[in-house]
Structures are given as C-alpha cells and as structure tokens.
Amino acid sequence: MVLFFLVILISTINSCDEQTIKEPILATEVMYIFPEESEPHEATWLQWPHHYQYGIDFRDDLDPTWVELAKELITSEKVHIIAYDETEKSRIIALLNAQSVDLTNVGFYIYPTDDFWVRDNGPIYVYDHNGNLVIQDWGFNGWGNKADYADCNTIPTKIGQDQNRTVVDLNSIMVNEGGSVELDGNGTLMACKSSILNKNRNRGMTQVVAENIFQKYLGATHFIWLDGQKGLDITDQHIDGFARFGNSNTIVTMNNDDLLAYDVLQSDIDKLYAAKNKDGVAYTFLKLPLTQNNVVTTYGKDLGYKGSYCNYYIANTKVIVPIYNDPNDVIALQKIQTIYPNRTVVGIDFRNVYANGGMTHCVTQQQPKER
C-alpha cells in the first residue's frame, strides 16, 4: 500500500503575503496535482542565455533561438523572460525590437542565473487541494553536481516572491528536475530511474519513497519506470529526450532502431512499448524519426549524433518543435500535427542549443492558468 507523507499547513500570514511551506511538517494528508502540459497556460517562462558563464560567442550563438521562441510564444500566451541583470534586459529588448517582436505580451524578471535550462531548475506549478495554483521548489543540484547551480536553484522562490504566490519548499525532500518526469494528466508518471534514484541526486532513496513523494506532490498514482543510463549525458538520461505523453492516451517516442541509436536500452524500449495507464489500458504510440543525418550547428560543428524531435513544447495555440536543417524535419512536424489538430505546429532551429545537450522542452516552463 502506498504511504502518504503527512503535513499540517500552518499559516499566520495574510493572503497578500508570499507564503513558504517547509516540508514535511506532520499530520494531515495533502495532495497536489500537476496539470498536463496541454492544459491552458497563463504564460511560458524562458531563461535567456547570457555571457557571464560561458562567454559572448556562446551567448550570441543561442540568441536567435530565444528570439524565435519569444516571437512564436507571444501569439499564444504571455512570455516571462528571466534576464541576468538590467544590462542583459536592455540587450534582450534590443534583440527583440530588431526582429519586430511585439513586447506587449512580454514581462521581464531580473534574476542572476547559471544557465538557461528553466525546465529543470525553474518553478513547478501545481494545484493544491483547494484548487489554488502554487509553486513547488524542488531541489536542483546541477544534474548531480556536474555544473554550477547556486543561482538557478533560487529561481522558483524568487518567482514566488514576485508573484506573491505560495512556495512549497521541497529542497530537503528530493532533487528532481522537470525534464526527469513526464505525467499524462491522468495519474501516470513516466521516468528513468537513472536521473532520480541516483546517488548524485537522492542518495539512498528507494523507488517506494520516490513514488510516495510523487504521489503526494504531483498526484501520480501509477508509474512507468525505465532504468535509464547513469553517466550517458549530463542529465543521466532524462525521459523527455525520447518519450513524452502527447496526451492522456498517447506516448510520443521513436521506433526501436532509432531508440537504440539514441542510446536507450533494449530492455527499456520493451518496457516503454508495453506501458499501460493507471486503468490498465495500453497507450497509443506516435513514433517520430531521428534526424536523417548527424546534427551540424550553424557555426559548422558536427555534433556526431542525430537529433530527437520528441523534446517539443505544447503552448496554448502552438506546439514548438526543435528542428535541425534536416530532411526529416518536415516528416516530424507533420506527424506531430496529427495529434494536435487545434494547435499550429511550428519548427524552430535548435541546432546550437542541442550542442549543449537539450532542446525546446528543456528551455521552456509552463505557468498554468488560475482555476
């Protein structure tokens, strides 16, 4: 039987103040629900690349992708841009103005960051048992102490303070990056053990304890666990690179050969293809190709590996898909369009971002609408 963690919520502050809940406290069952990505958004969060960590060339190679992201997203919802400082804010505004991007739907937040992977370090928005939208601040340690993270780890709390929103502090409960977990909006969570039950994140944590935590804080009651591979990449194989819930009954992934080429274990492929939802019903699969060729950046670097299209982002009226100047771009866009008939599927060149390990889903984070 799954055990619930128990808490008492104690609040002596008025509703206008930002509230931080330290977990766990003791005694009353609390459940939070993570809304599926396709549910209505208030906004999308972006952390803009800067030069303070990796240099000007690094930043300049990435700017065009963020400009295109902002341009596409503002027609769908608000865009909250995190800029490192006021100087960076002014630079970003100049970039957007140069491409005639309407700033009406854009808001800026000034927070120092180490990097731009807001999916992994940013706020996780969930609904509490009263239907209130709150922020969860999960632990973030630079993918197992592989990168600097001190500034990025503060982002959820800072956003909560600026939005006067309750922040549920989970830093002492679990290290958990947003890209590590996929939820179908109907109680099923899919993840690789390698990026969660790993001594560089959660030393000694058992699968049962992890499931208890996910049940309480994300509303997951059914689990699809793949083993994954520790040390394969900086994330220790996040699930969202190769398997996503396209909707409550569809898993978007690849065919067997392409998954093997993407370094997914055959045993994990078998588990993925056999996956069923919490009611025991098998999922439908949409299988996207890898790129036909190895990805080559705009500055001519051959990455030596192919690109995945699974790491897309679902906005209110659009689906933003990473593309790679490859013949299979069109095929992937057409396939994804079939499961989102009421959204426009848009491809954005992500070659230079992919050189740093991630794609569209990794650099976006949704803020759902208030209920």
Summarize the structure.
This protein is α/β, with parallel strands linked by helices and 371 residues long. It is built from 11 helices and 19 strands.
Structure report:
The chain has 371 residues and is α/β, with parallel strands linked by helices. It has a single domain, classed as 5-stranded Propeller (L-arginine/glycine Amidinotransferase, Chain A). The chain has helices spanning 56-73, 86-98, 118-121, 142-145, 155-162, 199-202, 207-218, 256-261, 266-273, 328-337, 351-354; strands at residues 6-7, 20-22, 28-29, 41-47, 78-83, 106-110, 124-127, 133-139, 167-175, 181-183, 188-192, 222-226, 244-247, 250-254, 284-288, 313-314, 318-323, 344-349, 365-368. The strands form six sheets. A four-stranded mixed β-sheet has the order 2-9-8-7, with helices on both faces. It has a four-stranded mixed β-sheet with strand order 6-5-4-19. A hairpin with a 4-residue loop joins strand 10 and strand 11. The chain starts with 5 loop residues before the first strand and ends with a strand.
